[in-house]
Amino acid sequence: MDYNVLFPRFHLAEIEDQPWCPEVFRTNTHKFLARFWKASTSSKGSPALQASQILVRELGGLSKASEYTFVDSCAGAGGPTPVIEPILNERLRSVGLNSVQFKLTDLWPDLKAWREISSHSKNISYFEYPVDATKAIRLSGDNKECRMYNLCFHHFDDPAAERVLLSAIESSDAFFIFEMTHRTFPSLLNIVLINFQVFFTTVYDWWWSPLHLIFVYLIPLIPIMNAFDGLVSCIRGRTADETWDLLTRSSGLSVEEWEQKHGWELRSGREIVLPPFGTMYWCAGIKKPN
Ligand SMILES: C[S@@+](CC[C@H](N)C(=O)[O-])C[C@H]1O[C@@H](n2cnc3c(N)ncnc32)[C@H](O)[C@@H]1O
């Protein structure tokens, strides 16, 4: 699929990925992302709601979706899961199907945020210990497992991204990569708009904190760091072809030959989920039934 990318991909470094990154910045970014998933400027609903529709549609409908346990593999502060879970389970129950379970995992588990999320839903649980998405093991027992990589796949350089995909192919039954940052004009414009919002939400969050007298001086730094990471995230965005190349390059097979050999279907698409510019780029792999 042609994504109209403006320049080649470079794996530059985001501040959030650095060990020296202040925790306050990482927390603020994840909190912002959790809000972003719920925001809506579309009659089709929030990005999270629209992602839930992509999940159901691509898995083959509600009945098929109900066979999976969903693992949010780089969950941050929860990302879209607290929105997707009630929407999807409500739809499943409305047609007489059982609720599905969601599991939050991350290399750096945000236990405070996850405790709060799971206290509101018996269908969301979390793993307290670090789970590395590059060598993830199956977490869903006998159920089919669907791994979600929300706004995180661009964090992995090519060798790590390849390991993430291989681990999904080896030990799960489906995976979805959702990204909102890309080397495209709409994505770059979206980052500009979003950073105005980050400024206001940061002021709001810190104003009520007892530490606000300290943080009020740091507040302008947070949107600046966020804008930097947003731009780097765009530069690190992958097209579907670049994503599938990670899977096929060692074998020299075409995507169709790879699908045939491994019994998986690889799909991709893009949809405007946060007008005017916010475009969701998704890639999905689904294991074909034997
Ligand atoms: C930009 S945040 C996205 C958070 C969340 N998915 C969302 O949509 O709001 C990227 C997340 O990837 C996690 N991460 C980075 N490398 C990882 C790895 N190797 N295994 C698991 N998680 C990882 C980080 O800890 C961070 O929480």
Describe the structure.
The chain is α/β, with parallel strands linked by helices. It has helices at 23-38, 47-59, 62-65, 81-94, 111-119, 158-171, 185-207, 212-218, 221-235, 240-248, 255-262; strands at residues 68-72, 102-104, 124-126, 144-150, 174-179, 264-274, 278-287. The protein has a domain at 34-184 and 238-287: 3-Layer(aba) Sandwich (Rossmann fold), CATH 3.40.50. The chain contains 11 helices and 7 strands. Strands 3-2-1-4-5-7-6 form a 7-stranded mixed β-sheet, with helices on both faces. The mean pLDDT is 91. The structure holds S-adenosylmethionine. Residues 30, 33-34, 74-76, 79, 106-108, 132-134, 150-152, 155 line the site of S-adenosylmethionine (SAM).
Please supply descriptive tags for the structure shown above:
290 residues; alpha/beta; Rossmann fold; 7-stranded mixed β-sheet; 16% strand; binds S-adenosylmethionine; membrane; transmembrane; Methyltransferase domain-containing protein; transmembrane helix
Summarize the structure.
The protein is of the alpha/beta class and 290 residues long. The protein has a domain at 34-184 and 238-287: Vaccinia Virus protein VP39 (Rossmann fold), CATH 3.40.50.150. It has eleven helices and seven strands.
